[in-house]
Sequence to fold (230 residues):
Amino acid sequence: MKAFILAAGRGERMRPLTDHTPKPLLPVGGKPLIAWHLERLAAAGFTEVVINHAHLGKKIEAALGDGSQWGLRIRYSPEPPGALETAGGIANALPLLGDQPFLVVNGDVWCEIDFGRFSGLTAAGNQAVAHLVMVANPAHHPGGDFSLDGDRITFARGEQTLTYSGIAIFSPTLFVDVPRGSVMKLYPLLAAAIRLGTLTGQRHTGPWVDVGTPQRLAELDAALSSVDRS
Fold:
């Protein structure tokens, strides 16, 4: 299974930190944010990773190279200024991702999760086109995104909501009607899958942080820097 890291966002809420440094390269716990993903992917047995980029994308390529320092093979999917949003970015990278289900990870989240648990999971099973990892609603997103009914994701219902973590398994078929190079958000595709009963998910209860503001970046950096990981 291949992995795709979403790294094309401008990081407006992180300015001025992202004026000269792309958000995935901001340091946290002594290393770039994206390096945490790359290390976990390598440890889980992944070997091929695709990364999209737009804002300061050349800096991402220069910093990560071909991925050999992590035992990975990294390929890049450049996007035009302003980027293509999540669904558009994934659709644009499909030639690099192939025709099998793949893991997608938002480049601006930090999560203690074993990516290896997904290596045997295919989003095509049980007619599902996607399998989302959900987490408890953080303070900055109290309303959540969806609800879980067993392993089926439904539209948000009352207080029984969860937040999409930015980690998922996707089947390429979910993006078959998205033209390459088009700008498109992910939610309309997920909503259509919910209506068809083809969107599944699971809850992750371990540490997870949406690193979306300088304050949350600083808090995570302090927390990670205080832990002895030797």
